[in-house]
Amino acid sequence: MNSWLFNLPWVWLLLVPLLYCLYRCKAAIRERIFPHLHFFTKVKKWRNFEWLLKVLVVILIVGALATPVMIDFSDPRNRNGVDIVLSIDGSGSMNASGFGEEESRKSRFEIVQKIASDFVMKRSEDNIGVVMFGDFAFIASPITYEKEIIAEMIGYLSYGMAGQNTAIGEGIAMGVRALRDSKAASKVIILLTDGEHNSGSVSPKEGVSMVQKNGIRLYTIGIGPKGEFDSALLEQLARDGGGKFFAATNSAELSEVYDEIDGMERARIKSAHNVLEEHYFQWFLAPALGVLLLLMWRRRGVG
User: Fold this and answer.
1) Residues 83, 188: contact at Cβ < 8 Å?
2) Beta pairing partners, 278
3) Taking the domains of the chain in order of start, what are their residue ranges?
4) Which long-range contacts (CB under 8 A, 24 or more apart) does 286-292 make?
5) Model-level pTM?
6) Which of 144, 133, 139, 192 minimizes the C-alpha distance to 166?
7) pLDDT tens per residue, range 183-222
8) CATH class of the region 79-269
9) Angle at CA of residue 22, ends 21 and 26, nearest 5°
10) Residue 273 in this model has a pLDDT that exceeds 50
């Protein structure tokens, strides 16, 4: 999406005094003695046209001073977003029915799929990737700006694809790996699990150490009834990773958690300013110069 903007729109206010002066301020007239005045019957028409050309020159010059630019907001370089990796638990326990008796029609994994997809579609300015972990972890989707593809891909995932156990350390480490080539100033991993760390070759402590070394912020989410997930570990990981720990005992709370993270991350980048602009002041200056040359040539011919 391309947008035309003026970096200094207030400069247009100069038109008011300039045009007023152009209308009211009369140029000094030099007396010339010439006996055949009938040769100048069309001077008045030219002077009216000349005044209109002067108005055009003033408008064009003021337009150039206002600095017209075009910004392509679809260009990744013009997005003030963050690079986010959703690290999702896909262990066997995620097949449990909902978060409790009131949510027994869908599995936890299906509920997480829906809420995570909604979160992805809200982050219009970000690049997002997906990691899934169980006994091991793998990158289900590399970081990309194509939100529709990510949301669709999340729908194709299923519990057990990475094994039946819960390797939280692997989930963090693979999230760091997904962000390895990221050039974003702000990088985030959002790890979700319903269990305790019990598998993998990378410990949670080693995983959070990798987060710290790579300047990544780590959020952790524990879902399900209290006691099923290791809240102490998840809270410590988030604290060490510069993020925050959340607990969700039902789908409504989980949706609120993602909404809160969404708001927190937008607040962090609110003051960022990284806009790639194409300047088009020359489109105003070039015709202004052309009209000025015409006026000068005409004056020289009259003189």
Assistant:
1) yes
2) 70
3) 2-26+43-73+276-302, 79-269
4) 287/56, 287/60, 288/56, 288/57, 288/60, 288/61, 288/64, 291/53, 291/56, 291/57, 291/60, 292/57
5) 0.65
6) 133
7) 887 899 999 999 999 999 999 999 999 999 999 999 999 9
8) alpha beta
9) 90
10) no
Phi, psi of 135 (to 5 degrees): -70, -30
